[in-house]
């Protein structure tokens, strides 16, 4: 960056972040207002300030409770999931040097959901291991599977993706198998939840755990932002720039798996956010990770809250699985990327 | 800083690709590495730069075994320009050259005046300062090569390894880059295919064949008609250029 652009740059970035935060706040407010019955934005605002002790407006107890206990936590969880999945996508795309990489495409989400389902339904390690741990083990198993299948070659872009497709198929089949053979009727219906995701039923405890995990992981990733830049020309180039490639991969794949597993154990698998958002963010702030990662977090959060709103209003009286909405946006985008990533004649 | 290779052996599976190479590049010297396709030049350079671990033998840089030096410390002393490094990312020329500062910066340290100066000098050296905002995918092959060289220079290394740095360059830039490498006060090892360029710009020449070094020394002693025939399978006559007094090869074809 030259000096002149350097001086203008922070201002532009500050404005961009500020406007993204405003959009996010507004989206969360709208997501909180919309539902089985709509609550005016004013009431939403006052309920929140009441709860925070900033105001004491007389409001209906029910509305206040709906806003605080049901909808606000859900909207904030959606925001954190969007942020987390987008960061995972950005990291995987850089480390694998593949514009199509993300936890869902690589089968990591599928692995996490298999792990979670195995814990719930088969009761593996009952009482001793939590749902999240199961998801975490599943996520790593999928990572290992993809790494194994795509190793040996000089990891051409298509190879990793093909391995990911195989992993997704395998783990989704395992999930469906476990649920249909061992679950009861209700659990069999819930298989949709694991395969397509849902924000139904998330409350403040989920938010708190997710907040800690996503913020901590984002901080770790930001510490590695420069390192990720050094992967622009591949592993060998990164090594010749002084990066301990194996260690960085281990840390960042670990962080990605942790975030994916935490998110999937709460809301199931949600595809394509990790794919679409990093590309949009790169378009906004460029490929430098110190800017890209926070941008991914913000754009991902806004995207997911909007997707959640769409999932609730698209079909009257029904909530679409969130993965359906993200896929409807993500798949055309994926196709566009595939088209652009084709080898030049 | 000098580079010493002691009896390096490296291979993949059962195949031995670098077979008992010993060589020395003394401080400030520019050494040309020549040899037919597949003779192991790139593999040797990767070993010397510490990117691969040799099966046997060792590489000593500045008196220390490379395997004992941390990656980061090594990257402040050794820079490498690979044969075909490319990316799909929409990075700018400046972004790429700035990567050269990676080993000199900590995770969150700001961009210092020293960083800025190193990048500006490197860009000027390869004549790309007016193109610094252009994006990588829009650069021509030769421009990409020059940007990679600038990135390596921005590392401010004591030792520079270049694998066919004149690939894709037009003749003006081939000569400009080779002259720059010769005139830099760096220890450098350059893999080249143009033997006349090697003769013109290198203090010494190392010849590789089938993973081993078959000749090493000044151009005058290395570039012989016998060597051309044995190693490169071409007929040539070696004379002395009346213009620069260096050996010059005329290739004979029928
Ligand atoms: N990772 C690898 N796995 C298998 N074979 C390899 C590997 N790397 C290099 N080789 C083989 O080793 C030999 C030497 O390769 P290298 O790239 O070092 O040659 P080179 O002298 O640089 O050739 P060129 O002039 O074409 O660049 C080649 O036959 C190549 O096919
Ligand atoms: Mg080579």
Instruction: Name the CATH class of chain B.
Output: Alpha Beta
**Based on CA inertia axes, which overall geometry of chain B fits?**
globular
Termini separation of chain A comes to 33 Å
Radius of gyration of chain B: 19 Å
Bound molecules: adenosine-5'-triphosphate, magnesium ion
Please give the number of β-strands of chain B. Answer: 12
Figure out the total of helices of chain B: 9
- Major sheet strand order of chain B: 6-7-8-3-9-10
- Considering residues with a beta carbon less than 8 A from a beta carbon on another chain, report the largest interface and each chain's count: A-B, 29 and 37 residues
CATH topology of chain B: Rossmann fold
Structural class by helix and strand composition of chain A: mainly alpha
CATH superfamily of chain A: ABC transporter involved in vitamin B12 uptake, BtuC
What is the residue-averaged pLDDT of chain B?
A: 93
Describe the structure.
- The complex is a heterodimer of chains A (345) and B (254).
- Chain A is mostly helical.
- Helices cover 76% and strands 0% of the residues of chain A.
- Chain A has helices at 3-33, 41-51, 61-95, 108-122, 131-150, 157-182, 185-196, 204-223, 225-229, 235-240, 245-267, 273-285, 289-313, 322-341.
- The radius of gyration of chain A is 21 Å and the shape is globular.
- Chain B has 254 residues and is α/β, with parallel strands linked by helices.
- Chain B is 32% helix and 28% strand.
- In chain B, helix 3 (93-99) runs parallel beside helix 5 (141-154) and helix 4 packs antiparallel against helix 5 (141-154).
- The interface between A and B is medium-sized, with 29 and 37 residues.
- Bound molecules: adenosine-5'-triphosphate (ATP) and magnesium ion (MG).
- Residues 41-42, 83, 163 of chain B line the site of magnesium ion.
- Magnesium ion (MG) is lined by residues 41-42, 83, 163 of chain B.
SSE order and pairing:
The complex is a heterodimer of chains A (345) and B (254).
Chain A (H helix, E strand, L loop, with lengths): L2 H31 L7 H11 L9 H35 L12 H15 L8 H20 L6 H26 L2 H12 L7 H20 L1 H5 L5 H6 L4 H23 L5 H13 L3 H25 L8 H20 L4
Helix pairs in contact in A: 1-2, 1-3, 1-13, 2-3, 3-8, 3-11, 3-12, 3-13, 4-5, 4-6, 4-11, 5-6, 5-11, 6-7, 8-11, 12-13, 13-14
Chain B lengths: L2 E10 L2 E11 L4 E5 L6 H8 L7 E6 L2 E2 L5 H7 E4 L11 H7 L13 H13 L15 H14 L4 E5 L7 H13 L3 E5 L3 H7 L2 E6 L2 E6 L1 H4 L2 H8 L3 E5 L6 E5 L3
Helix pairs in contact in B: 3-5, 4-5
The complex binds adenosine-5'-triphosphate and magnesium ion.
